[in-house]
Every structure is written in C-alpha cells, then in structure tokens.
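Quick sanity check, 2Fe-2S iron-sulfur cluster binding domain-containing protein:
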Amino acid sequence: MTTINLTVNGKQLSATAEPRTHLADYLRDCHNLTGTHIGCEHGVCGACTLLVDGVPTRSCITFAVTCEHAHVTTIEGLDDDEIATELRAAFKREHALQCGYCTPGMMVSARDVVLRMESPSEHDIRVAMSGNLCRCTGYVGIVRAVQSVIEARRKRGAGAIPDGNRKLLGPAGSGHSSAVAANGAKPRETSATKAAASVAAAPARADANWTPQTTFVQSFTVEHPVDQVWEFFGRIGEVATCLPGASLDGEPVDGHAEGRIKVKVGPISAEFQGVADVSRDDATRTGTISGAGKDQRSNSATRGLIGYAVKQGDRPEQTRVDVTVGFTLTGMLAQFSRSGLVQDIANRLIAAFVQNLEAKLSAGEGAARAVAAEFDAGSLFTSVIIGRIKALFASVFRRR
C-alpha cells in the first residue's frame, strides 16, 4: 500500500491505496467522491473525465500514485465554477442529458471547450467532444448547449484562453502541464512543478546527500603549458564549444550558465536543456561543475557533478587534466547508462573534446567559434560493440 497525497477540490486529502489503483477508484473508494463515473475502464467513453492540474484527464486509466501532490477537480468541485454553472443551465434548457451517466465527464470536457475555443463551429464542437460518448441524446442538445454558452460568454467579452493556458507537454499530474484551477486561476505550485521549473531556472546547487548512479575517472594530456590550459578552462563559453553537441544560452554570469547539449542515440534525438554552476580554485588549479538538465521529448533527465584538476605534465610544455565524473540519468535514455558502455563512450567523447581543445589552444583566442555538432551516441555505441566483438574473437583465437 502507498500513501497518496492530493489536493482535491481545494482540500488536501491523503489515503493509502495499492500502486495499481486508478485515480477514479481512489476518489470513489477512498474519499467517497462518486460523482466521477466509471464506464468502459479503457479510456474510451469519457465518463470518468475530470481535471488534473487543470487538464481534462481519463481517471480510469490514470494511476492515482502518479498524481502525487497534483490538483484534482472532480464534478463536485465545479459547483461554484462560473463556466460549469452556465453549462448546467444550458444542458437543462437544451435537454442535453437523459440518463445522466455520461454527464459528469461531458460537463468537464464541455467546460474545457468553452475555456479554450474562441468561436468554434458546430463541427468543431463535435470533434472536440468526440472523446465523450452518450448512448441517449444523439448529441444535438449537447452541442447546442456548449455553443450557446460560448456565444453568450463571447458577447459579454469573456474571451477564450489559448490552449487553456497549457504551455508544456507532459502527462497530466506529472508536473509538466500548465495548471489551471476550477475557477480559471493558476493554483499554487506543487513540488512536481517546482522540480520541473528548477531545471530551467534555478542554479544547480551542490547537494551533499546526492549520490550518483555512475562514476568514472579519466585523465588526458594536452601539449600546452599548464598556465595556458588553466586560463582557458576559466572561459566557460570556449570550453563548451569543445564538447560535441554543447552550446550556451548567452554568457555565464557569476559562474552560472544555462545551455543545452544535443544527443542522438539511434532513432532517439534528445536535447537536454539545463543549468550549471562552475567554481574554480586558482591556488590548487581545481574546479567543479554541478549541473542538471532535462529533455522534454524523451522525458529524460540527468544530473551530474564533474571535478577536474589541471596539473603539470611530464614535460614543461605538457599539461595533465584529471577528471572525475558522477551522474544520474533517468527516463527513456536511462537504458543506455550501463557503466561499462558509459566508460567506453566517455573515452571516445573525451578524445573528441581533447582534439577540439588542442585545436582551440593552438589557434588562440582569435579562432572562429564553430557550432558544435550533435553528439551521436548511436554511432559511438556501434563502434563500442564492434570493438568488443573484435576483442572477444581475438581472445578466443589466442586461446587456440
């Protein structure tokens, strides 16, 4: 059993349920909110539709546990809602309900149409409401009711809200959608929305309690004096251009940088947008980079901590750089984070970085800043696998 905490119809509610419990069952069985009706239990009929963070959601196919800390509005929570009040009167006037079983979900979807669509035609309303099935009315009264409310509100100057204030993609309740409360106002931020926003806006502060999933240590040398290399590492924008796929959104401010890195793994093309905080110690020639990023398309997120030390090499004109990398990768791309493959990929990525670094140092500050290409991890994985197969065959034939 899992404790699930939700804000339902403006009240904070908590109850225990099995992780497999759907949101509709959770609301009906745990909180006696039986206005949400369950029909097909396949997300087809629309009878169970309610609002999760302001977005119409099929509660029969949404796990309650995935909506932790979300704002849920059921049909009971729309009693005092302006649009819902007008729709109830219109439904009664246009004879838009008979048995009433589909009505709760129909009302929620109709409210969303009134909220989003400026001046829809009858066809537009039928398409928008096609996800809600009715076995009684033939839909004529329902369409007339919705259309009459829209026309009345537009005449009063109550315009539509484009896309219902939805600015981000993502599953309802996951913190990626733009929330709209039942009264049309934006509700307070939940922990999920704050976490999503922190990737794009907040500094990537170091957390002593954070433990990376994968850690590896790597060293490389460059044929340039240590003072020159250390000074170059202080120019964050220049360093970023040496990393394939990386770019910054403007110049860093007080060691804080915002940017992105493009990664391609087979058919998956991701663009991690994130932030990083950079600190340096001139006395010891060491530095740290703490960063976090998120790819909206694959819903993958990463967090990492890089520590580096710039040291004198074996020769006066040579510099050694020791790098320690720790990171955590979640989401669709996490399947590619196995430590053995990551180490091989890191070796190739660092080799490309060193090659670009050498070119930059040799050309000096006047060198043109070439746009870094997308990091194609797919081709690197292929080379890694081919290399391992060759090594396997070599070891077999050596035994013979």
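Posting the structure with no commentary besides this: The chain has a mean pLDDT of 78.
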